[in-house]
Every structure is written in structure tokens, then in C-alpha cells.
Amino acid sequence: MTAESTLVKHRPVIESRNDFPILSTRMNGRDLVFLDSAASTQKPQMVIDSLRKYYSEQNANVHRGVYALSQTATHLFEQSRLKVKDFIGATSEREIVFVRGATEGINLVAQSFGRKYFKPGGEIILSQLEHHSNIVPWQMIAEEKGLAIKVIPINEKGELRMDVFEKMLSEKVQMVAVNHISNALGTINPVKKITEMAHRYHIPVLIDGAQATSHCAVDVQDIDADFYVFSGHKMFGPTGIGVLWGKEKWLDAMPPWQGGGEMIQTVTFEKTTYNELPFKFEAGTPNIAGSIALGAAIDYIGQFDMTEIHAHEQALLEYCTDKLSEIKGVKFYGTAAQKASVVSFLVEGTHPYDLGVILDKMGIAVRTGHHCTQPLMDYLGIPGTVRASMAMYNHMEDIDRLAEAVTKARLMLC
Amino acid sequence: MKSIEDKQREIIEDFSLFDDWMQKYEYIIDLGKSLPLIEEEYKTDEYLIKGCQSRVWLRAEIKDDRVYFKADSDAVITRGIIALLIRVLSGQKAVDIGGSDLYFIDRIGLKEHLSPTRSNGLTSMVKQMKYYGIGLQNKETV
Question: Which domains are assigned to chain A?
Fold first, then answer.
């Protein structure tokens, strides 16, 4: 939070629900209860308006035209980059690369950084909690360059075994990539500590912040990792836009990943020189509308106090855990001391798919299955879980509806 | 043996008795809970159709010119729908299975379960059943 924003009078978090038009719609004839924000959050009117306004009044390609409309679009696009910079506490807008989402950000680093710096025989450390997005890109480059993937194990609560991590660190390790918050279990990982430990061995660190940016204040300088990625659609912004933040010294040294327009300085058939940061990594016409609307999402979040958002979500988490534990046969997965508003559970004698189907019929949107974390589910020895994930716009009544529906589903299924 | 057409009509008639989704799903769940549909020994990777949400096992046998299916799932609603599919297709002539149009699933309001995006293994299972129908015409078992 900047000094300026502490002077701003924040809106009460409880009001936020009314800003999301979709939350007053119905699903299967019942008032929608949306508890799948970890997959994608809903969008406030401000973000929807931003998209509409862009295409109705501001659309033109950026960094190209001398005409006023193109200048406006470029200005808004670059303004948005500045908003992102402030939002995560980056030092310079040169460190903010617009990508399609966290997944593309990780792929960019794996391909560009990995191609230049990874050496055969080295190791990449991931964690048992990772989403496939933070596994597969590393496997691809590891296979190409001859590196091994090592995995930080978790304890029975779903927390990273930091004692084991410490022993895994060595000169052989060439990258540590972990998530800030686990999408499947909600564990908030000690990313600052992880970074500090890795840096003792001069190992670069990438943090997958996809689940973090709408739930807690992120300060990339405080965490001090080398790369931080996140997705717009998980923080009330549109799909198809995300951010890669990287330390300038790395981004400067890394080769471009994709080639095309925007990312060049001069092109001849003999040789091309590349544009400066961050444009070197933004080949082709970018997602202009998405970037500007991401800026609107940041403005939207800025109307609230992040501490209050966190407190509200923690209250929801506690209430949800309490209500569900009253139901016979409910077993929770992920009970970390530091946990985001994600409740992963199973009901004894039922399959997550069956529960999901019945909950859907009752107007409740939850995620079922392996949550793109198959290695984690295999490790837990389960086919998947039912996951209720809350955001700032959820109310206690949503939890009541969930608990009521799970009770009913259990009666039908057991 | 009733035809695929007759069996589908029967099921549509059965389902027309239900007033709401709960009765319908209770019936499907009951179907899913009835006798094991496939022997444990066949619940192996060889017979597994992987879905993101639920897993399905499918085995086919041919006797004379008819195909007999056995299938199962780890999710009970998926099993219930499997029971319906087996009721319609198992024991039918291979050639009829291959060319069948399973409209009943839409008519009883369960189309969503056979959507490829559901990823519960059922879409692939139906595809596989039809494939067996065509492919088994000259074979004993698969």
C-alpha cells in the first residue's frame, strides 16, 4: 500500500457483492452461490465498463499511430502498466511484461531464462503443491537441457517441509519455482523465506502468484524473488491478460521468447535488433483492452483495504470450515496454519463428481476434481476433492447455502 | 430382445414420471448403487477410460452377432448413467450399436453429462461402445 492510498477512505468490503452483476443471476433456477473464485473470479461493473468503453470509444493499435485515437490507446495501455507496477511495488515499469496469464509468464521464463542459463546436470526445485502450469513448462525445458526436477514435500497439513527444502538446496540447483498460495489446498507459502534461502546459493526464484493477488497485498521488493507471475482473471480482471514481473537485470539479459512486431528495434533480413524492456517480450499486438481492464481491476481493488479483504475472507474460511465440519463424514484436505480462503474437502462414501453434480443442481458453483494438481492428488491418494474458494464478494449466507446443499447431497448419495 | 429404439422409449417414459431433478437424480443414484457392473478383476488400466472428473471402465464381449457390455465408474451418478447406456446398448447387434442415435439422454435431461467438456469419461465411453459395435463384428472378445 502506498502512502497515498492509506489516506483514501476505503469502502466496506461487504458492499462489494453488489458491484458484480453476475452474482445476482440464477443457476439451475436457484440464486447463484459462486464459490469457485480460485478458478476465476467474477468481474465488477467497473471492469466490464472498461472493456466496453475501450471498444466503443478508444480502440486503436498501440505504439503505432500518430493520430489521437492511437495515442489515447497507447496512453491508457501504458497507464495500466504503471498501475500494475504500483500494485505489486515494482521499481520500474520496465519490469512489467504483459502476458496472457500466469501460465504464459512461467513458460516465458522457462524458455527464455532456461535456454540461456540452464546447464545439463542441474536441478529445478518445485513443490508438491504446484499447479500443472508451474510443473509442465519446467519439465519441457528440463528435458531439453538435461536437468532434473526435484520436489519439496509437504506435511500432513499441506505445508511445505522447509527443513527438507533447506537440504535440497545446493550449487546444482538452477531455479526454484513455487506458488505463493496453493490453488488446491489454500496453503500460503513462506515465499519470502524460500527466496532468502535460495538466494544464499544464488539460485533464482520464480513465484506463481496466481492465487495471491486478490487476497493479500503483494510486494515484489519485499519478497525479493527474481520473477513473479499472476493472471488478471483471478483478480477481477478479464481473461487473457496477466503479468510477468522480473528483476530488470534478468529481463535485460534474457533473450526474447517470441518474435514479431512490437518487440523489434530494427529488422533487416540479415539481422534484427530488439526493442527495449518490456517491449522485447511483447511480440505482436498485445491484449490492449485486457490490459486496460486489468488496470480497472486494480483501481477496483484499490477502493478497498486489502487488510479488510483478508480479514473478511479469513472469517469466511473459518465459518465455512466450522459449518462443514458439522456434517458427518466431511474430511478436509489442507489445514495449514497460514491458509487462504480455500476449503478442499470430501464427504466419506461420496465421489467429488457426484457432490459437484448435486451442488450444481442447487445453484452452487464449486470446483470438483484434481484442480490441475494431479501430482498432489496422487500424493494424497484421492481422485480429487470438492473445493469451495471464496473471494471478497462472498457472504456468510453463501456458506449457509453450501452447508445446506452438502447435507442434502450426502443424504442423497450415501 | 427389444430394439435400441424400444429401450430408449421405455427409459424416456420412466423418466417422465419424475416431477423434479431430485427424484430423477435419486433414481439415477439408485441405479448406480445397484449390483456391481463390472468384475473387480477388469478394473484395470487396460479397460480404463480416463476422465478429468470421474473414471470409467468398459469391457465388451461378443456372442453370436450381439455385443454385451460391462462398465463401471468410481462416481455413482456416472454409474447410474452407465447403467442406462448398458440397458439400451448391451445385447444389441453390433451393426445397430455402431449406427445408433442415443437421443434418450437428451430427452431425459441428462445431456450435460455426455458433454465432452464434462470430462467424466462418458463421452469417450459412448464413442468406445460404438467403436466396439463396428469393430467387434468379426471378433470374439476385446
Answer: 3-43+306-413 (3.90.1150.10), 49-302 (3.40.640.10)
Nearest-CA distance B76 → chain A (Å): 7
Q: What is the pLDDT of residues A204-263, one digit of tens each?
A: 999 999 999 999 999 999 999 999 999 999 999 999 999 999 999 999 999 999 999 889
- A307 in Cβ contact with A285 (< 8 Å): no
- CB contact under 8 Å between B75 and A369, yes or no, is no
Q: Is the pLDDT of residue B142 over 50?
A: no
Query: Which option is the CATH number for B4-35+44-138: 3.40.50.261, 3.90.1010.10, 1.25.40.10, 3.40.50.2000?
Result: 3.90.1010.10
B89 is catalytic: no
SS3 A322: helix
Query: Which residues on neighbouring strands pair with residue A207, listed in sequence order?
Result: A178, A228
The answer to whether A351 contacts B55, with C-beta atoms less than 8 Å apart, is no
| ipTM, interface predicted TM-score of the complex | 0.87
Cβ–Cβ of B21/A370 closer than 8 Å?
Answer: no
Neighbouring C-beta atoms of residue A314, cutoff 10 Å: 15
How far is C-alpha B24 from the geometric centre of its chain's CA atoms? 17
- What band does A58 get if pLDDT is binned at 50, 70 and 90? very high
Residues of B with CB under 8 A from a CB of A: 21-22, 25-26, 29, 52-55, 74-78, 113, 119-120
